[in-house]
Amino acid sequence: MKRDFVISVTLDKRRLKTDNTYPVRLRVFTPHDRKQKLYATAFSFTEKDFSSVWETTKPRSEYKEARLTLQAIESKANEIATSLIDFNFEDFERLMYNKTSREQNVNFYFNKFIEKHNQRNAIGTVSTYVSALRCLLRFHPTPNIEFKDISVSYLEEFQRYCIEKEGKSLTTIGIYLRNLRAVFNEAIEQKTITRDSYPFGKRKYQIQAPAKVKKALSGEQLKLLYEGVPENVDQEKAKAFWFFSYLCNGMNFHDILNLKCGDVDSEKITFIRTKTAKSTIAPKPIVVYITPYAKDVISKYGNLNQSPKDFIFPVFHHSQNAKEQYLKKQTFICFINKHFLKYAQSLGINEKISTYWARHSFTTTAIRKGASIEYVGEAIGHTDIKTTMNYFSGFEDQAKRDISHKLLDFN
Which of 59, 226, 239, 406 has its CA 20 to 30 A from that of 339? Predict the structure, then answer.
C-alpha cells in the first residue's frame, strides 16, 4: 500500500544562524495535498558537517553520536506515522511530541541553558548541555521529554543505560545529570513545575560521584620528567608547556593560551582566570613570578614583541570567535597530552598523565614544601579551601615517617 506521508531529516537553509550553521529539521510531507511541516531538533550544522553526519554511509567517530540521535528521531516519527490508520498532522504531533505547553518540557529548558551559555561564550559548558540532551533523547521513547516523565526510577534506568549501552563513565553521567538538575531548578524557579516534581536529593535520586583520583606526581617523578630528554620536537614542546603550567601556579591551559603581552613584565605574570572572569563580579588577579624555565618557554614558543593586547602564544587570534578558540584549545591540549604521555612512558612513568596533572602537582608539591593551604588556594585562584584540598594528594610516606619519629621530641 502506498504511504500517504514521507518523513526525512533535512537541513533547513532558509535561515542562517549567527554561528553560521543551519537548523536540522524533521520533515514530514503528505504527497496527496502537497503539504509539509518542519519540526525542530536539537541540532544545527554547516552544509559540510550535515553532509558528514547524514549523507554519508560511514560517518567519522565525532559525527556518530549525532547521526544515531537523528536516526532515532526519524525512526520514531515513521513508527508513529505508520501506526495512524489515516495520517494527519494533528494526531502525529500529539503522539510524537505529547506536550501541553512549550514551556512544560525538558527540551525547552535545556535549549534555554544552551542559548544562555552561548551568549556568555562558555563553549565548553554549551557542549556538556548539548551532549546531555542528546543522550537523554536517545534514551527517551519520544523526542519530547516532559518533567513529569522523570522520576527516581527513570534516572536510575537512565544511569544503567548510559553505562551498559553507551559506555559512559560515572564522571560523564554526573555531568549530564547535574545539568538536568539545573534544568529542574530553573523550571521550579520559573514556577513551570512544583518542588514536588523534583527527583533529586535525600531519599530520592543522588548523583553518584566516582572515587576521586589524585592527579599529582611524586617529587621523584617530577625530577625524572624535568631532567629527562625528550625523543623528538613534539615531546619537547609538550614537556615545555606542561612544566610551564606547573611552574606558573598550575595555570590552566586556557589561561596559558589566553595570556597577552601586557600580562607579563620582567619578573611576573598577572592575569585573570578565564573561568572566574565569567562568573565573578570583581575577579581577583593571580600573580605568578616567572622562573628562568618559564621565560625560556615564552622566548621559544611565544612572542612578547607585540602590542599589549596580543596573545603571547600563536594559538588564539583576535579574529577567532569563542567556538573557534575552544576548538583550537582542545586541539592544542590533545597534542600536549598525547606527546607528554609518550615522553613520560619513555622514562618508565606509566600513569595516564594529562595537562591537568600539572595543576594538581603544583598544589601538592607546594603544600608538601610547607606552603599553607590558604596560600596555594590563592595562587591557583580558588575561593574555597575545600576545592584546593581536593587537588592535594597527601604527604609522601617519608614525611609521615619523619613526623612519627618527632612526636616524642619535646625540645
Answer: 59
Range of the domain at 379: 219-402
Q: Return phi, psi of residue 21, to 5°.
A: -120, 165
| Contact predicate 73/39, CB 8 Å | no
* One domain for residues 188 and 305: no
Residue 410 lies in a domain: no
Query: What is the β-pairing status of strands 6-11 and 286-289?
Result: unpaired
13 neighbors 7 (Cβ within 8 angstroms): no
Q: What is the pTM of this model?
A: 0.63
* Residue 308 · residue 261 · CB < 8 Å: yes
Statement to judge: residues 154 and 25 lie in one domain: yes
Which SS3 state, helix, strand or coil, does residue 51 take?
helix
Tally of domains within the chain: 2
Find the farthest-apart pair of alpha carbons in the chain and give their distance in angstroms, rounded. 99
What CATH number corresponds to the domain at position 340?
A: 1.10.443.10
Task: Determine the Cα–Cα distance for residues 8 and 23; give it in Å rounded to an integer.
Answer: 14
Instruction: Calculate the dihedral angle through the C-alpha atoms of 372, 378, 384, 390, rounding to the nearest 10 degrees.
Output: -60
- DSSP lists the bridge partners of residue 8 as 27
Whether 176 is in a domain gets the answer yes
Residue 338 in any domain: the answer is yes
Is 148 found in the same domain as 16?
A: yes
pLDDT in tens, 290-344: 999 999 999 999 998 889 999 999 999 999 988 899 999 999 999 999 999 999 9
* Model pLDDT for residues 274-305, shown as the tens digit of each residue: 877 666 566 788 888 999 999 999 999 999 88
